[in-house]
Amino acid sequence: MLQVILVIGGVLVSLVLLLILMKFFGIWIRARVANTPVSILTLVAMWLRKVPPSLIVDTRITAAKAGLEYNTDQLEAHYMAGGMVDHVVLALIAADKAGIPLTFDRACAIDLAVKGTSKTVLEAVRTSINPAVIDCPGGGGKIDAVARDGIQLRARARVTVRSNLDRFVGGATEETIIARVNEGIVTSIGSAQSHKDVLENPDHISKRVLEKGLDANTAFEILSIDIADIDVGENIGATLQKSQAEADKHVAQAKAEVRRAAAVATEQEMSARTQEMRAKVVEAESQIPMAIAEAFRSGNLGVMDYMRYRNVMADTDMRESIAGDTEAAPDKPN
Fold it and tell me: What's the whole-model pTM score?
């Protein structure tokens, strides 16, 4: 009975070994033929660690054919860290062929740094070999700036950049380059005395922007900045002066209205005071008959004195009446 169990166990073990051999034999023989041997146990260990053996072996073969030697542990470690092993090896091959110093650890760091973005380490190396062109401000738009003479200029620039692999990890991206170039163009146009100077020599903008070192602390190195297009916009200075004139006009009108209201109030106040004085005159005149009566009673005024007073009053009234008729009548023709 024991012998039967041992035989069955041996058969099962043989079947398992045969299946494993059949599963990894193709990969093993491929690595052997490419002169990058990998043991069956190593392939099984990769499979148990959920690392695709074919990817690791094929990537190692690609590196070896390009003259680069990396062991499976390095490739496995980067894969398990979430990196793209094939892109890293292709980037290292491209850098080696172009004579760009790039180590395996630096390439892995760049690959992990760009993870989750649209960039890859292979694109970074390719951009380092073949510089890329970035449109500023991007999206086909233009940068608006105003010269000192008040004329608006609209410019579009093209920035030629090359990846700086030493600063790629932790360096600012293309958005920072675009923002800095936009700021530099606005500053350069704004410092120009006249918009004509900018139109005559647009290369002055490029020189001033390059002098600022806008690629500092970024993942790129700016090679050149070219003004692709520049147009004349609105006369911002005249528009601002017009708006200021309108504002000054409204302020002057408001102040004039305040002065008019003050004059009207003063006029009304003087009219009220005039009426008050007239009331006092009427009040004083009302005291005259009483004073005459008191003079009669006290004997200070006689009848003849009173008659002369009445005659004078009648004569005064007549003169005033004649004078009023003369002023009211129109001039007679000669």
Answer: 0.59
